[in-house]
Amino acid sequence: MADTYIQGCFAFSCLPAEMALLEEAFQASYGLGEGYNPDSVNPSPEFLALFPATEHDRWAGFRDIFSDRDFPSFGAVLTGSNLADPLMVDAIVTSEIALDPEAIAKLIQRCCAATLLTGPIGFEWSVTCSRMRVGEFSGGWCAIFHERIEIETTGEALAASLSGGVL
């Protein structure tokens, strides 16, 4: 038996209001993952504008950004500070075990729309294994733009290069 880890650590600057939305999303993820009663927490109007509720599930729009709606976890921790500029916040995302790059990218794209109008946000991740096993080590990258998300694994890049698709 071996354990696989998806790890990452990256930072980006965003507006304080955007950081508040990111924090609300991470708190919702923690709570929903812990199984608390989702009806006991009221999302902010700003949050609901980005992640619309349905008649039967106020968290439906939020759950939609995850590949498994029943397990809404980013697999990461969000911290931040505004030491350099009180008008901007440094958001720091870290993960040692189970980063979900696609869900993180979708979250940033929705919550940081104003920041993304000034330029893209990107990050990388690694996949490691507790044992030396062929094919268990890789990684990837993600570029988040206002209108799209580009995401690729090192395996995809390697396969393209081996087939002559990358110069």
Account of the protein in words:
Helix content is about 35%, strand content about 25%. The longest helix has 19 residues. The model has no long low-confidence stretch (mean pLDDT about 90). It has a six-stranded antiparallel sheet with strand order 2-3-1-4-5-6. By secondary structure, it is of the alpha+beta class. The chain has one domain. It is built from six helices and six strands; from the N terminus they run E-H-H-H-E-E-H-H-E-E-E-H.
Strand order of the largest sheet: 2-3-1-4-5-6
- Terminal-residue CA separation: 38 Å
Helical residue percent band: 25-40%
Query: Using DSSP, what is the number of strands?
Result: 6
Mean pLDDT: 90
Rg from alpha-carbon coordinates: 17 Å
What portion of the residues fall into strands of 2 or more residues?
A: 25-35%
Name the helix and strand elements from N-terminus to C-terminus, one letter apiece.
EHHHEEHHEEEH
Uncertain spans, ≥5 residues at pLDDT below 50? none
Structural class: alpha+beta
* Total domains: 1
Q: Quick one: overall form?
A: globular
